[in-house]
Amino acid sequence: MSGSVSAVSSNGTYSFTKPNRESVTLVAGLGVLGDVHAGATVKHRFRMEKDPSQPNLRQVHLIHEELFEEVRAAGFEVAAGQLGENVTTRGTDLLALPEGTRLRLGGQAVVEVTGLRNPCRQIDDFRKGLLKQVVGRGPDGRPVFRSGIMGVVLSGGVVRPGDPIGIELPDGPHRPLRIV
Question: Is 176 contained in some domain?
Answer without folding.
Answer: no
